Structures are given as structure tokens and as C-alpha cells.
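yo

u said u wanted the structure for the complex thing, so here. seqs first:
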Amino acid sequence: MADLEGLTTAIEMGDRAAATRATQQAIDDGRNPQAILDAMTAAMNNVGGRFQRNEIFVPEMLIAARAMKEATALLEPLLVAADIRPEATAVIGTVKGDLHDIGKNLVGMMWKGANIEVIDLGTNVPPERYVEAARTHDARIIGVSALLTTTMTGMADVVRAVRDAGMGDVRIILGGAPVTAEFARAIGADGYAPDAGTAVEVVKAALAR
Amino acid sequence: MRHRDRVIAALSHEEPDRCPMQISFTPEFADRLRADLEARGLVTRSGPDSHNPHGGGNTYELELALDEDLILTSVGWANSYYQGPEAYTDEWGVTWRAQPYETPFGTGYYTEMVGRPLASDAAIASYRAPDPDRPELYEEAGRVIRQLGGEYYIVGVTVTTIWETAWALRGYEQLMIDLVTEPDIAEAILEIPFRYHLRAAERLTAMGVDMIWTGDDVGMQTGMLISPALWRRHLKPRMAELIARVKAINPAVKVAYHSDGMIWDVIPDLIEIGLDVLNPVQPACMDPAELKRRYGDHLCFWGSLDEQHTLPFGSPDDVRAEVRARLRTIGRGGGLILGPTHHVQLDTPMENFWAMVETILGRRLPAAAGTPRR
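structre next:
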């Protein structure tokens, strides 16, 4: 029988070969796709916690996410067939004028790892594109990132655009080095995360509301 | 007191007549500052002065008018930033484009990297870095030492020493993945800028600069980017070699290390390999008073004024209070070169800038003609 604990470990260790092998083995053994997915999300959950505690760092996160991505690709057809869908969709992007994306990318990886569908708009994203994407994809979450004091002010424009579009129930979560919980509150955002690990807790809390 | 003596005293853990000050600016803030200084009669030349924040090609009028104590002269990859509003490729093969941003005080441009010469593995073996021994690279340093070194403290800048240039060449995420999956590739790439900047640091030291400023951003807001273990394996030995080699050339030369963000775990390592000055002390990430408590006997500090909140978004009184707090804590008994943690950006109100400068200098600068005094 496939060892799902081995799959969890392989993803946590960023071992893409072992992760895809373990996933294929589990599929071949006829394991329940939900159980396989749960083993994957458990891995990313552990990774997020360790990152929050500064036990692992960005390189380890990147390879864990890569292993998760490749393993998930194998599992995807079975998930679709079993109608196991992500629990929600999130749109993410870095604000207009800002080309920095490592933090945003890590959050995207962690949210995918938490079984949220992530539509990544990239960088230098004007407010109207967040709105359009949220509408198109029926997103419940918008994640906005900024690295710079000179661009973070644009986050207020995103909040305004989203509310003006009548999306009162879409939760807007902010992140980025100069961003603070205070700033997020002041501009009317719904949440703030200081790192990609915490971002999973914040998005889950936002979805539960 | 000569400007350079002020710095020497501070770095000898003595309190000079006032805390030494160093401030750099993004090009657009430099333009705004120049206009302000001209209105005050503190610079007389009008017209464009190309201001490179790291010192490549500057006339230093702004720094001198402000009564700064340190003059920066830069050799290396960091000079590739801010080379123009049009897209360009630097001599290392990195391609750049300008990204505009809006502030209440006008439009600025960051230069952002868009193309990496070593993105593909196949490109690594045949890659040749630029030559660090070209005499023209050192002409500015020579001029600065001759013309300003008698009065000012001269800093030879070789920042982005290893890690930052390496990720510019390879790609940010890819280099981090290399570190944990293909360490031989990572090593080959890290070696390239290290050899260049080591040579530049040696030559600048031999020419007589007072300090070599090195560094790489290895910290994030909440922790290190890469593990302390990886930093110790790949960056520490190279930094140790650089420090040893420049001090062999001139035992009195000081070495400063720049990293943004939080790097508590490797500060003992930096002390161990002979570092003199830690920069820029990003206060939202590492508490300046705590740094002084823990390491003030072994290290001096350079920077510490917050640019993520206080300088752009605080009030002038907030700025003054922060300067005074630094002087009382991390600057107590010397050991501090004070200034913002990075180039002053266009989103900084001039009132805040002057509050910072005047509080550090302990005096008001002449007002612009026709300006009512507070």
C-alpha cells in the first residue's frame, strides 16, 4: 500500500522525484484522491508552520512548493473526476508600479497548498484588473502585495475599486515588507499577513467568516 | 573637527562633537533636494548633476552642502542601478527597465532587472565577468581621495558583493533553488561576483579609502531569506577572505556589511570574521537599542533611521524623536554613523528630511529666501 506519510515527507523535503513517485504509487494503488490530497496539504501546512518559526527559509519553501505542484499535476485528473474542487478561489498580485513578487509567489504557493485555487495576476497590477479577475473567477479572496512605501499606497486604490464594484463580501488580504496590520485596517482591508506561513491562517479565517 | 575625524572617533567608540551623518538619495529626490538647496543658497551650481546613490559619477555637491561626513565611491555591479529611464543592458549582461511610481511629490523611476544572463545552466561555464582591473573603474575613487580625502571619510563601495549580483545573473528564485538542489551550480555563480568585488575592494584599499562597504541583502522583514547554515557555508568564507585580504593591505581599513532585514543569527559570525560596522540597521526588523546592548562592544553601526514608516509617513516631530532616540541608544558612547536605512526616496516630505538633518547636525540650515521660519 502506498505510504501517504512518505508523500507528505517528500513534499516537505522538496524532493520532487520522491513526491511524484509516491503520488503515482498511491494512484496506482487506488487510494482515495481526497486522502492523497490531504497528505499533500498536510505537507504544505507543516512547511508554512516551519517557515513562520524561522526553522526553514525561502529556498526550502520554493522546492517544497515545486514538489507539491508536480505531485498535484498527477493527481489533478482524479480530483476533477471525483469532483473534488478547491474550497475557494483567490486572486493575487503585486500592486501597480511594483515588480517584486517573491513574497506574493510564496503566498500563492501556500494558498494552493491549502487547497485554494489561486489566480496569479503577476506584478504591476492596476486596481481594475484585480476586480475583473475576481469577477471572472468568482473569487472570494483578493491578495495584494507591495514591497515599497512608494507603491503600498496603491493598495488603498485596490480596496476602493473592489468596494465600488459592489464586491462587499470579497475579503482583501494585504502583505509585504512595509505593510502593517494598522495600515491594512486604516485602508479598509480585511486582513494582513506578515509572512507566507501566517497567510494560510489568515485566509482560512477570512473564508470562515 | 574635521569630518573624517568625527567618523574615526565614532568608530573608535568615542562620542565626537556630533554624530557622523551619511545620507544617499534616489535620483529624483536628489533633484528635489538640489532645488531646495539652491533656494537656500547652499549650492550655487544649477543644471543637471547626475546623482548615483552608490557614488558612481557624482560631484558630491549635495553631500557636502548637507555637511555629511562620509563620501561614497563605488566600483562594481551596484553601479548598474539607476542608469537611465530607457531600457538597458549592463556590462554583466543583466537587462533592466525603468518602472515609474507615483508619489505626492512627483514621479520616480526604479530600475528593475528583467533579463538574466545565467538563467540557463548552459551559459554558466562560458560566462566571463567584466574585468575588475580596468584603470578607468578607479578614476573616480582617485579623484575623491585626492580632492576630498583630507577632510572627509572616504568609503570604497563594493556592495552586492556576492549574493545580490549572483541572483541578478541567475534569477532570484532560481539561485535559491540552486542552493538547496544544485550547490555546485550555486557555488560557481557566487564565485563570479565575489572574485570581481574582492579585486575591487583590494584595489580601493590599496588606493587609501578609509572603509570598504560590502554586503548583500540576506534578511527579510521577519527573518533571514536563506538559512544561517547556508549563509555560513556559501557567504561567510568569502566574506572572511575579503575582510582578511583588505586588512592585510591596510590594517586600519574598516569594513562595513550591508544587509536589509533581520539577520540576528549571523551577527556573531560577522564579528568573528572581523567585521567593524553593521549597516543599515533596519529598525522595524532589528531593534537598534537591542543591537547596541548585545553587540555594541564589538560592532559599530551605520544607518538606523526608519524609512518604512517614519521618514515617508511620520511627522517632522516623529523624525526628530527618532533621531534623538538613536543618539541616546545605539549612538551612546559613539559607535554610530547615523542616517536613513536606504536612499531617501521621493515619497519623503522635505520637512521630514530637514527635521532629520537638522536634528543630527544640531543646528538649523539657512532657510530659503522668503521662507517664514517656524
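The radius of gyration of chain A is 17 Å. Residues 58-81 of chain A form the longest helix (24 residues).
cya
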